[in-house]
Design a protein that fits this description.
This protein starts with a strand and ends with a helix. Helix content is 30%, strand content 28%. It is globular. The protein has an 8-stranded mixed beta sheet with strand order 8-9-10-7-11-12-13-14, covered by helices on one side. It has a 6-stranded parallel beta sheet with strand order 3-2-1-4-5-6, sandwiched between helices.
């Protein structure tokens, strides 16, 4: 598989960002796009020189010229479209949040396993170069055994009842749009928590506009996480241990720089600037997995 052929379902903002970054990978080819309307598929195809343009998601899923599909539709359609592609025999990279609930997620995983197909959530932050540096520092014992994580993703969204983030019918709310990032980070370094404490500020449209989350672990580790659409925040992630701390600088989920501060107060800064929007790294990981037969 010298070249991996991609299809994209959806033609909105996130689809455009992903398509821009696929162009940075010489072994990736954007082969097909699927939309609910031919004019949208054609406009997207013109913008990114996509040769195969489908006026339905079913047609894209059935396209034998596609190796893997990136799901870029709104939250409420993630599970439906991922299942559509898996049942048609396509590998899937599904934009976060993976699904709206555990039942949908379980169905997606079971379907992929039953068909021996690759399926991954597009948690793009996980594959940024700076995250590799964090992992290496932790593995090398730079801060000792990590015991504490604090991460926030707080960004003010002006209230608009018609916007999808304020619409419960479209999977709105701070947790699914923002909170998944710090939750991912806690799972990456500490695993599944043994106890969870949460509180939320519910807004006038019925979505969670602000969340505070504490993950507690039996060995004493803690993750203190927050997400908000109501306010700006530090937008930092700090991982601490007995020998020091690692801080990923603002905005950490798009991270390009970290600072290691050791217990003796010495510091080291690592910078990992990248081209594009940052989605190319998850795409490259998917392609490596496909070539490995995963």
């Amino acid at each position: 598989m010298d070249t991996i052929r991609w299809g994209i379902i959806g033609t909105g903002k996130i689809a455009h960002l992903f398509a821009e970054d696929l162009a940075l990978l010489p072994d990736a080819q954007l082969t097909a796009v699927g939309s609910r309307a031919q004019h949208s598929a054609d406009a997207f195809g013109d913008a990114f020189d996509v040769p195969r343009r489908h006026a339905s998601y079913d047609a894209l899923a059935a396209d034998e010229a596609v190796d893997v599909v990136y799901i870029a539709t709104p939250h409420t359609a993630h599970a439906e479209n991922a299942l559509r592609c898996l049942r048609a025999g396509r590998a899937v990279l599904c934009e976060k949040p993976f699904a709206l609930n555990a039942q949908e997620a379980a169905q997606m995983v079971e379907t992929a396993r039953a068909r021996a197909l690759f399926l991954m959530e597009a948690m793009w932050t996980r594959w940024l170069p700076i995250m590799g540096d964090v992992e290496r520092l932790v593995d090398d014992g730079a801060i000792g055994s990590p015991q504490w994580l604090q991460a926030d993703i707080c960004a003010h969204f002006p209230f608009d009842a018609d916007h999808r983030v304020y619409d419960p019918a479209l999977g709105g709310g701070a947790l699914l749009d923002l909170g998944v990032y710090p939750v991912m980070l806690a799972y990456r370094f500490f695993g599944a928590p043994d106890a969870i404490t949460t509180t939320a500020v519910m807004g006038r449209t019925g979505v969670d506009e602000q969340d505070a989350i504490v993950f507690q672990y039996e060995d004493g580790q803690q993750a203190i996480l927050s997400a908000s659409m109501r306010t700006d925040g530090a937008r930092l992630a700090t991982l601490g241990g007995p020998a020091g701390q690692i801080q990923i600088h603002r905005p950490w989920w798009k991270g390009q720089r970290l600072t290691l501060t050791r217990a003796d107060k010495s510091t080291k800064t690592i910078a990992r600037p990248y081209e594009g929007n940052g989605y190319q790294f998850e795409a490259a990981h998917v392609m490596a997995c496909l070539r490995a037969g995963r």
